[in-house]
């Protein structure tokens, strides 16, 4: 579907939307007050005024076209105001994950040469104060929230957002013509943002994304997925990640959709019922948690309740596969008995979910599809702005990431000899096209300009023919792309066989007993796993069975608990090849989280960190062989 306004830059997008919705009641954003009151809606006229105000302040404080300004903040309205003001005057947005420690913030500020630093809360302000003196280009720190401790404001370089807006408002008459002049000269090839990789290996690299990169991706996405100006998106994935930035922010704006900000990642379930979104952008972890909550509830119910649920799932999957007639009548009953309750938990208005950032286990996708909650799985990288492929509404194929976007070319390169063995562009839709497995390559207007101040890393990522090497392994299956895993995640066992852990781990995400699982076994005779139990399920079981324990370590060490997990892991063995089967495991007494360092901010597993942190468990598995 076409975008609601024409645009060639993000600057155009903002100005044309502001003009289209001027003097109307059209809502652009909404925020949840901290006092628990209902969402506050913010209309386009207010957004336009706030962006002009911020732009005036930025200009007065020395931000020139091409200058970098950093943001360390959760998703919120103020983040959008700073970003849109930067796009308006040709500045460059450098966003940081709020989970980053001060030292990594310091590196990004130094590397990018950021002039100003916007932070959200007192916690983030502390980081800014720790590193300010070591960042020569940095002139000022602006805090969105008033810190709890007054001494934070003693430093002369720290000011509050409300003071910035008050000053900017007075400057608008003086600088209005300069703002307009700058907005008119922003070009598609100009840099819009630096998106730093999470730095799981080595120092973070800043992917340079231009206006053309992002705009081409937004327009291509709109050709694949319909977004209407009646739509509403709940935003909770980090805006500093390109997935949320493009899909949950710019693409939503381009369709005229409203963007409601979740209070936090932890409140998404509650905010869904309050915001009642029609679209939600997420990573698979959310869908896994919802699925496990539902199945846990069913498992704890009566035999009749379990039978009804199984029947409803069967009917839902038949309906999703296109069967009608009697199935249509059965589906209405299944909705009333089972699925309507699930839809109510999502706010009751979801048209579709979008899943990205990691592989969605097919069984979980099929469950949601059967319930009438469509999930459109897509694929891409920060460096591709980010979307390369996606499924479309009504043509979802679970286990694939869909078709290539218009204007984009995706190729498969054989790992053994680097020969390209399959290539599709977004204009090709051959339903019978298949290819061998290999590394996924990408070429198109969405491919980044390169890495900031890092020509060597750019040359490693983008070859002489303009193909970006993703490091992911996949194949084409009837015209759709299937992802196998990351090349660097590949495990080579003692017999020399290549094993990709991702698909193995995805199998176990439907187990009610298992919250997280990481496959290990490099150069070993068999595969093993580190298993994080679903602690809520485990503790409930212990209570029912009167199992006494003083700590989680004691509970997971008990033989009866170990036996549960032996049986559970064995039950999945028939779905795996002999060399892929999990032969042994160790239970981990705590969850892998972003805060404790085992997950990236987009909830991907940091394998190297986990293998180092729990190396003693891995050694214990294999040392007897």
What features would you highlight for this structure?
alpha/beta, 21% strand, Rossmann fold, 27 strands, 625 residues, 3 domains
Furnish the topology, listing elements before pairings.
Blueprint: H1 10-20, E1 27-31, E2 40-43, H2 44-60, E3 68-72, H3 77-89, E4 92-96, H4 102-112, E5 116-119, H5 122-131, E6 140-143, E7 158-160, H6 161-185, E8 191-196, E9 206-210, H7 211-224, E10 232-235, H8 242-254, E11 258-261, H9 268-275, E12 279-282, H10 284-299, H11 303-320, H12 326-345, E13 352-355, H13 362-370, E14 375-380, E15 387-390, E16 403-404, E17 409-413, E18 420-425, E19 438-443, E20 450-451, H14 455-461, E21 468-477, E22 480-486, E23 491-492, E24 498-499, H15 501-507, E25 514-520, E26 527-533, H16 535-544, H17 552-557, H18 559-571, E27 582-587, H19 607-613, H20 615-622
Parallel strand pairs: 1-11, 3-4, 3-5, 4-8, 5-6, 6-7, 10-11, 10-12, 12-13, 13-14, 26-27
Antiparallel strand pairs: 1-2, 8-9, 9-20, 14-15, 15-16, 17-18, 17-19, 19-21, 21-22, 23-24, 25-26
Helix pairs in contact: 1-2, 1-3, 2-3, 2-6, 4-5, 7-8, 11-12, 11-13
Catalytic activity: a long-chain fatty acid + ATP + CoA = a long-chain fatty acyl-CoA + AMP + diphosphate
InterPro entries: AMP-bd_C_sf, AMP-binding_CS, AMP-dep_synth/lig_dom, ANL_N_sf
Pfam families: AMP-binding (PF00501), AMP-binding_C_3 (PF23562)
